[in-house]
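WARN retry 2 of 3 for item q-0093 after timeout on previous attempt; input resubmitted unchanged.
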Amino acid sequence: MADVDLGTLAEKLRSSKGIAAKHDIGSVTARLGVRDKAVPVGDDCAALPDGDGYLLFAIEGFMNAFVAADPWFAGWCGVMVNISDVIAMGGRPTAVVDAVWADGEAGAAPVLDGMRAAAEAYGVPIVGGHTNIRTDRGQLSVAIVGRAKCLLTSFDARPGDVLIAAVDHRGRYRAPFDNWEAATDAPAERLRGDLDILPQIAEAGLCLAAKDISQGGIVGTAIMLAECSGIGIDIDVKTIPLPSGVSLDRWLATFPSFGYLLSVSPDNVDAVLGRFAARNISAAVIGSVLAGSTVAITDGTNRIVIRDHATTPLMQLGPTEHSR
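OK item q-0093 returned
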């Protein structure tokens, strides 16, 4: 990796719209009054105890600009990112439902086609939803249910763990957004097999905490994980594997189609990395989980704090008595 201007990178991360947007979560959950309920808020899915495991329940809504610019891919992502949320918690997806708004049947067609293509590729059925094709613009929301035997959560990262980033590099950017697309032309058998990596890690007891890399990128996702777990994280940017031809600053702003952060005990690192290597997915230790409340980037010599969630919470969803 080329020399990193850590100060310039830090300023870019602090001004990231993808990270700033996560601040909205706190005000919405406060308004809804769900902050101190028995099911902790802040995870990729709501995890409802159910028999000998957990029912997982999640929903995603999509930016109007994204749906307008690339409706087929928005439909695909409606299924894909919900599946990713279930996987991030050590679960397996069961089914999805959708809510689609469009200006006529022709306006809805590419979104629906994208959803159908993803559902067939991943083997997760669409079982219903809501349709309104008499509106003046396209909008999309998709929800999912799944099940987990053993949970990976946002609340169980512990000081002394190391931070692993696992991202499928076998893709490309899909302009004009910073979406790293590594799924639409992948074999369905490979996609379905990759979905089982995190559930197997959870069930083998190799990890307790994980999070889907979302619109906030690697650093934004690390901030959310740190805040929920009440810990600090140092990320060594020189250890982050990059796809060929991709710059570090853009990669840190990227929303990958398959990307996760895992907080792992040092004793289990080799076993966890081996699970991803067996599926040809890039995975590496990129940082340390520490006591404290700061998320910082380092270059091996210098260190710059990006956010201190104790003084400037991002989501206002730190640990509670129900979180662990």
